[in-house]
Design goal:
The complex is a heterodimer of chains A (about 110) and B (about 575). Chain A has about 110 residues and is mainly alpha-helical. In chain A, about 50% of the residues lie in helices and about 0% in strands. In chain A, helix 2 packs across helix 5. Chain A is elongated. Helices cover about 10% and strands about 35% of the residues of chain B. Chain B has five helices and 38 strands. Chain B starts with a helix and ends with a strand. The chains are: A mainly alpha (about 110), B mainly beta (about 575). Chains A and B meet through helix 3 of A and strand 29 of B.
């Protein structure tokens, strides 16, 4: 095939690849939450009951500040809970609210 | 079956049942009202309506307790959040409940399983709850056992067979997120049970149910339950007031009065500062939260009340304490611990204050409580933001918790665990969340810290219940979270948090025996007789909400202690 067609094919493949995998990596703006809204949600949904010091200290629940867990894990934990340890908030919180909570958690400094 | 035949069959069945049940009805009411004179059985949560948590058995005593050994063990399974219940015993059969309101009937001498009942709960709801799926105990009467569920039901089981007789849905737990974890109270053909509430913004009802049919007879809202009470909630905040009565009350047979302790208001912490009567999250006294109330058991109508903490701003429930009926020097007293670490002593006939004395050493939410009037002196109210100065004492976990104390009519002493711990906190303005389901309304973020006078710890006190005078004290490095048992053998049994059950001389506090049960204790403890032999039954298994922090504060064994394991461990003396 001639060079221009090959170039179109290569660019097209690269575009398809980027579109389907998010490559090259870029921030997923749909998931980015607001830490201030997250702080309000944390307070009004009773998260501090178990996550002492608003999540900065370990207590009934683990310390959230500086957690090594990724966003996917945290979202799953919030929505599904953990038997005998944490309630499931999936029915109570929308995806955008969960994203706000994750943004809040990421903003915390431990104590 | 045709309608007429069905109707006839139903009529015959009903007649037959009535004839069969009638003699037992009168007998059981008498049994319950005289339970403190029947040492072989343990017929209600606290042993009898007197709430003594005392066994009249003395086969096991100060001379021979050193030989106490395990007789048998039972594993209930699915012990999520540990074994928090107080067993019951009648005619040599032991009955107890585990998490998910699973009920077991065992031969009291051997532990052989006689029957079991596992209700089907709303698992999707349970997954959304925090104060769940534990169960703290049952009531018994008229040939039936009664147990509440975290999904808002009250279930009656035939005592002999374990078959369900009725199953009544009392609360919309799917929406309110709370249900029942506390034991009900059987009173003359009625079963009374109080809802969870407190930090959950609803209205905390107490229900009266017909014991034979399961039909709801009455409902008393601990939040704004009368017009007078509604006026004590500014801006209609009674709608999301909290309240509740999540532990069993008791029954004064002489006056036909049910006493019940009520839970705290929501949010737990207020930003009003000193202006709590007119400003903040819930302006006013907030009746009838953090109170003891006296109800007519037939109608649920309020007879009288005393609000232990007007406008409670610290989560110091009155719901958690035993109501101990003591007659002394011509007075009829009711002794009741409040979560803030004060013991309230009432005249049982009218609820007037006879005395108030502190049991916890570190208290600063008030300077004191007037022992004549019950007035709070020097109360600490906060505004939004970090709380300055001293940490708040006692901590949100309580100067006392819901584990019951015991009273020995032999020694005249009240044996009660008190806790020493505080919190630092930042008060936050919150809006109650009630859609799509009710969520915890705390109103602060907080962290447990040691008290000013030393490390976090607990102590078992032997005190005069009326004056508060100390006879002896035993210290524990972690606050014990199990109820305690006093016996006519002059013993006090204390299952502690680390897993050791101790027996002390009731007069002196000398430790006479101990045994490592292998898991912490957050339940009840009883004694009963089977086949002429005395047994001590110790629910063992860790995982209550208060205990969840012990790994952080105290390290091992709590860091590695499972919160989903448990067993009923039953002790007796060796056979000769």
């Amino acid at each position: 095939m001639d060079r221009s067609r090959a170039l179109i094919l290569i660019l097209g493949a690269a575009f398809v690849l980027a579109a389907s995998t998010g490559w090259p990596a870029r921030a997923d703006t749909a998931a980015a939450g607001d830490a201030n809204r997250g702080e309000e949600l944390f307070a009004s949904n009773g998260c501090g009951w178990c996550h002492a010091n608003a999540g900065r200290t370990a207590g009934k629940g683990p310390q959230l500040a500086g957690t090594a867990r990724d966003d996917g894990f945290i979202k799953f934990r919030i929505t599904h809970g953990k038997e005998g340890a944490m309630p499931a908030f999936g029915g109570a919180l929308k995806d955008a609210q969960v994203a706000d909570l994750i943004a809040y958690i990421r903003s915390l400094k431990g104590q | 079956m045709r309608n007429r035949t069905k109707g006839l069959a139903a009529a015959v069945f009903a007649l037959g049942t009535t004839l069969a049940v009638s003699p037992a009805v009168a007998q059981t009411a008498q049994q319950l009202e005289a339970a403190d004179q029947n040492p072989n059985d343990w017929l209600s949560y606290h042993g009898s309506y007197k709430d003594y948590d005392f066994s009249g058995l003395d086969q096991i005593n100060t001379n021979n307790v050193k030989d106490l050994q395990v007789a048998w063990t039972h594993f209930p399974g699915r012990t999520t959040r540990g074994l928090q219940s107080m067993p019951l015993a009648m005619d040599g059969v032991l009955y107890y409940s585990g998490s998910y309101s699973r009920v077991f009937a065992l031969d009291g001498a051997t532990g052989k399983v006689l029957w079991t009942y596992f209700p089907q709960l709303d698992d999707e709801l349970v997954a959304r709850q925090t104060h769940s799926p534990y169960n703290r105990g049952m009531a018994m009467g008229d040939g039936r056992l009664y147990i509440g569920t975290v999904d808002g039901r009250l279930i009656a089981l035939d005592t002999k067979t374990g078959k369900p007789v009725w199953d009544t849905k009392l609360e919309n737990s799917e929406k309110l997120t709370v249900g029942f974890t506390g034991a009900p109270l059987f009173v003359r053909g009625k079963v009374i049970i109080g809802s969870q509430g407190g930090e959950w913004p609803a209205r905390g009802p107490i229900f009266g149910v017909d014991a034979a049919s399961g039909k709801k007879l009455w409902e008393f809202y601990t939040v704004g339950g009368t017009d007078e009470a509604k006026k004590t909630w500014g801006n209609d905040t009674w709608r999301t007031g909290g309240g509740g009565g999540w532990m069993p009350g008791t029954y004064d047979t002489a006056t036909n009065t049910v006493w019940w302790g009520t839970a705290n208001p929501a949010p737990l912490y207020d930003w009003s500062g000193a202006d709590w009567k007119t400003a903040g999250a819930r302006p006013g006294d907030n009746l009838y939260t953090s109170s003891v109330i006296a109800l007519d058991p037939d109608t649920g109508k309020l007879k009288f009340y005393h609000q232990e903490l007007p406008h409670d701003a610290w989560d110091f429930d009155s719901a958690l304490g035993e109501l101990v009926q003591i007659d002394r020097d011509g007075h009829q007293y009711m002794v009741h611990p409040n979560k803030g670490g004060f013991i309230f002593v009432y005249d049982r006939n009218d609820g007037k204050i006879a005395n108030v004395w502190p049991i916890s050493k570190n208290i600063n939410f008030v300077k004191s409580i007037d022992p004549h009037t019950g007035e709070l002196i020097g109360r600490r109210d906060f505004t939004a933001g970090p709380v300055q100065g001293e940490p708040l004492c006692p901590a949100i976990m309580g100067g006392v918790s819901w584990n019951s104390g015991a009273y020995s009519p032999k020694t005249g002493l009240y044996y009660k665990v008190a806790n020493e711990w505080c919190i630092t906190l930042t008060v936050q303005k919150t809006t109650p969340v009630t859609e799509p389901q009710v969520q915890l309304n705390i109103g602060a973020e907080f962290k447990g810290v040691p008290p000013p006078d030393g490390p976090m710890r607990g102590h078992l006190d032997a005190r005069d219940p009326i004056s508060g005078q100390v006879k002896w004290q035993v210290n524990f490095p972690q606050p014990p979270l199990s109820s305690v048992l006093a016996t006519a053998g002059n013993l006090v049994f204390v299952p502690d948090a680390a897993g050791i059950t101790h027996a002390y001389n009731a007069e002196t506090g000398q430790e006479l025996w101990s045994h490592n049960d292998g898991l912490g204790h957050v339940g009840g403890i009883i004694s009963y007789a089977a086949g002429g032999k005395q047994y001590i039954a110790v629910p063992t298994g860790w995982g209550s909400l208060v205990g969840d922090d012990y790994g952080t504060w105290f390290g091992e064994p709590f860091k590695s202690m499972p919160k989903d394991a448990g067993a009923l461990i039953v002790y007796s003396l060796p056979s000769h």
